[in-house]
Sequence to fold (228 residues):
Amino acid sequence: AQSVSQHNHHVILSEAASLELGCNYSYGGTVNLFWYVQYPGQHLQLLLKYFSGDPLVKGIKGFEAEFIKSKFSFNLRKPSVQWSDTAEYFCAVASTDSWGKLQFGAGTQVVVTP
Amino acid sequence: SAVISQKPSRDICQRGTSLTIQCQVDSQVTMMFWYRQQPGQSLTLIATANQGSEATYESGFVIDKFPISRPNLTFSTLTVSNMSPEDSSIYLCSVVDGGAAEAFFGQGTRLTVV
Fold:
């Protein structure tokens, strides 16, 4: 069965700390990978995406993610978080055949304290 | 990028009634999707709204419960029929911008069934 697992449901950290959110997937075939963010009261926004090429992708707001095919992982990182990074983060996977149809992980609520 | 407007943004409905949610996009898009986010859970794809033909439903979702219309390339509706409290969720419209290789989301419709 296809699935997307996010390792942490809730993360609390202080400003300037480093953030890493884990994402593993189980999917037959070739996939495209995404991280979305939902700030409080706002709609989902794309942070970054991986389709092919360099497995280390950089997104907006200083976020990056690394695709490790052998581990079926696509972990999100940010070296130094800010209070404004408080949000819910979703990992998502889609088949390359129909990449608009996203399967989401459960989400990780990140709270950054001043 | 695509700008998506969903109406209503929230509603409280009586069980047994139906609610139609509208999704309007500011540009013509090929692919439109409807998702559901139940309380405390991740987003689940309900169906693909196909222009000029019946929607394509994911496993666990049926047309009688969630009829979808897609009369043109900028508009779609999702109806939640014969509602029960279990239908209380956030319903989101998503469109794919092939050029940007990105899925965009509306702000969602928060539905509470009492």
